[in-house]
Amino acid sequence: MEPSQSQSRPQRQPETSAAPSGIVILDFGGQYTQLIARRVREQDVFSEILPFRASWAEIAARRPAGIILSGGPSSVYDADAPRCAPEVFAGHVPVLGICYGLQLMVLSLGGKVKNADHREYGAARVRRLAPSPLLDAMGDEATVWMSHGDEALELPPGFQVIARSGHGGDGAIAAIAAPGRKLFAVQFHPEVRHTPNGSALLGSFLFAICGLRAEWTPRAFVERQLAQIRETVGANGHAICALSGGVDSTVAATLVHRAIGDRLTCVFVNNGVLRRNEFSQVQTRLRVALGLKLVAVDASQQFLAALAGVTDPEQKRKIIGRLFIEVFEAEADRLAAGRAKAEYLVQGTLYPDVIESVSVHGPSATIKSHHNVGGLPAAMRLKLIEPLRDLFKDEVRRVGADLGVPAELIQRQPFPGPGLAVRILGEVTAERVALLQAADAIALEEIRRAGLYEQLWQSFMVLLPVRTVGVMGDQRTYGHACVLRAVNSEDGMTADWARLPAELLAAISTRIVNEVPGLNRVVYDITSKPPGTIEWE
Ligand code: XMP
Description:
Elements: E1 22-27, H1 33-41, E2 46-51, H2 56-61, E3 64-69, E4 95-98, H3 100-108, E5 112-114, E6 120-128, E7 141-148, E8 151-154, E9 160-165, E10 173-178, E11 183-186, H4 198-209, H5 218-233, E12 239-242, H6 247-260, E13 264-270, H7 278-289, E14 294-298, H8 300-307, H9 313-337, E15 344-346, H10 351-356, H11 376-380, E16 383-385, H12 393-402, H13 407-410, H14 430-449, E17 458-472, E18 475-488, E19 496-497, H15 502-515, E20 519-524
Parallel strand pairs: 1-2, 1-3, 3-4, 4-11, 12-13, 12-15, 13-14, 15-16, 18-20
Antiparallel strand pairs: 5-8, 6-7, 6-9, 9-10, 10-11, 17-18, 18-19
Helix pairs in contact: 5-6, 5-12, 6-12, 8-9, 14-15
The protein binds xanthosine-5'-monophosphate.
Xanthosine-5'-monophosphate is lined by residues 317, 368, 370-372, 414, 416-418, 458, 492, 529, 533-535.
C-alpha cells in the first residue's frame, strides 16, 4: 500500500491506562523484527515496533512492561551502527536483546564484542550453564537458530553467561542475564520456527520476567476500538468507507458499523476488473450477512474505456487508482447533498503497512504502486479512521470472527485493488476480462473442491498475450495461453509456489481448455517471491 499518505494519518494514541500493558520492540533493521511482534501477540500480549532511534520519552509513553531489541544487519563496530536511547538499559523495565540486541547491550554497558571473521548461520545446539527464568522452558540443551557474525566476548558487570553453544557448552556465548538490572539477551533467534522452544522462551520473558498477562484478545481489542471510534466520531458524525469485499475493508467497516450504525456509508465500486459475479455476490453478502449500509456503483464502462489501448502495468495501476478516487469522490458528494456529509474515512490499513514507514532504512523502494485508495483522504480532506492499523492479517481474521463476520468472507484470499487488470497481460478489454473470469472461476472452484482454498495465500489465473497451437477433436486450434498461479505465504512479502497435487492441476487444465472457448493452453507458474512477485504485473 501507499506509504506516502502518512502525513494525513493520525498519530497512534499512546495507551492512557496507568498499568504497563505490552511490549515495545526496537527495530534495528533485522529481517525478523515483524516476526518478533507476531510471536509476542500470538501469546495474547500487545507488541508495537518502534524504530531504534525512538527517544526514551516516546518509548515510555507506551508504558511497556518490557522491551525487546531486535536483530539487525549491522556490526556494533560500524561507524553508523544503530544505537538506542541509553535509558533503555537503566532498569526501568526488563529488556530482552536478540542477536544484534545482545551485542549492543554488551557493548553499551562496557563489555566487549568480538568482530567475527565468519558468520554462524543455521541450526545449533546450546547448553544451559546456569538457571534463569528466561530458559526455564528450554531444558538443559536445545536446538536454536543462529544467524550472526559478531559475538559477545566479555560481559559487563553484573552479567552472567546462562547458555553457550556446543554440546559441551564450550562454544560461543548464547544467552546472558543480569537479573538485578532486569537485562537478558540471547544470541540466537527465538522468534523463528527453527528454534523449536523459541515461543516458549519469549513467553517466559513476557510472563515470568515482565509479569504480563495474556489479555490482548480479539474481544478486548474490539471493545477498546468500539469505545475509541465512538469517541472520535461523536454522537452525530458520519463516516464513509470504500469497501472491496476483501477481508480488511470488510472487518474495518463491520467494526465501525458496530460503533456508529448507519452513520457509516460504505461504497463499493465495480471497476470492471472484478472476478466473475463478484459485484453482485459481494453486495449480497455485505448487505444481508452484515447489515451494512452499502452504495454500489457500477463504473465498469468508465474504467474499461480508460484502460483501452493501455499495456504498461504501472499505467494500468495509475489509471485505476485515479478513476477510483474520482468515482468515490462523486459518490461522497452525492451523499453529502443528502445531508450525510462524512468527515471520516474508514480504511482497512494493516500493521505491516504502518511499520514499513518507520523501518530503519525508510520505506522500501516501490516495486509496484498499490493504489488502495491512498490518495483519498488528502484529496477529500477527510480524517482517517484505521481501526486495524495495529493488526496483522491473521489477527484481523480473528477479530472478524469475533465480530461475527461469516467465515467465507474472513477466509477470502487477498485480491489486488487493480483487480484482473494486473492479471491480464497486454490490453484489458471486456472480452479478455470475460475470458479470464471464466478460467479463474473454474480454477477457484476446483481448488475449493480439493479443500485447498483456505490453505493457500492466493490462487488465481493470469491471461497471457500469447497464442499457441493446439488440437481439439480433429481440429487445429490457435488459442490463448493462461497461467495458474498458486502460492503459500505468511504475509505476501515473500511467497513460495504451492505444490498442488497433479490431479488437481490436471482437472483445472482439462476443464479450462474444454469449457472456455478461446483458451487452449494452461501452464503452472513455479516461481517463488523473490525473485518473482505474486501478481504478474
Ligand atoms: P506482489 O505482486 O507485489 O503482491 O508480490 C503482494 C501482495 O499484494 C497484493 N497486491 C495488491 N494489493 N493493491 C492491493 O490492494 C494493489 O495494487 C496490489 N498489488 C498487489 C497481491 O495480490 C499480493 O497479495
